[in-house]
Amino acid sequence: ASQSSSNVLLLGKSGTGKDIIAQAIHNASGRDTGPYVAINCAAIPRDLITSELFGYTEGSFTGSRRGGCQGKFELADGGTLLLDEISEMPFAMQAKLLRVLQEREFMRLGAKYATKADVRIIAATNRNLKEEIKARNFREDLYFRLNVIPLRIVPLRLRKDDIPLLASYFCQNFCAENNKPLLEISEAAMRCLMRLDWPGNVRQLQNVIERAVILSGAETLDEEILGLSEEM
């Protein structure tokens, strides 16, 4: 996926690491020296999403910034734009996005002329877009435009061999952040980690390790300090 400029659609449950996969695709691509810009479509108020994506000119609306403002497409020119939680984008906005993907240009809010955009799009969602299309919440034509290279990120319960590596990585990072000597995860604790189904996926595992490192007063993280009984 990284060796092309085609659109990528990341599919997976919340917490599986879709944003990290998107960043990895950008870093391994020929656009790695360009900007990587991410926007969460679910976190932007509906009346602001147009200006957030495409920017605006000075005086285009009351309270607009002097000199106008660049949108995410303009900021990502020459690089990669991650549209996270794409399923949450308002239906009317989806038509504007489709046109930008087709024409490779956009209009700032209040502008008279279009601006070219050399942007590689990666979209991500934790929803079933085919079901969203049936419910008329998502445009079918936009789905096909985005779904050039689909990548499904499987939940952590289906890739448990990753758990020891992830747990050790998180432990090392959180020890460094909290100025603690490197702690070891006991074999018994690791077996417990491997038994869990992790409905919150990698993010849940990360939180468990972070909490344990902060609370630990020993040299080893055991089952008790991990609080695994609460997670099971």
Category by helix and strand content: alpha/beta
Unreliably modeled segments: none
> Radius of gyration from the CA trace?
21 Å
Shape annotation: elongated
- Strand share of the residues? 5-15%
Provide a descriptive summary of the structure in words.
By secondary structure, the chain is an alpha/beta fold. Helix content is 40%, strand content 15%. It is built from eleven helices and nine strands. The protein has a five-stranded parallel beta sheet with strand order 2-3-6-1-7. It has a two-stranded antiparallel sheet with strand order 4-5. Helix 7 (163-177) crosses helix 9 (201-215). The longest helix is centred in the C-terminal third of the chain and has 15 residues, at 163-177. The chain is elongated.
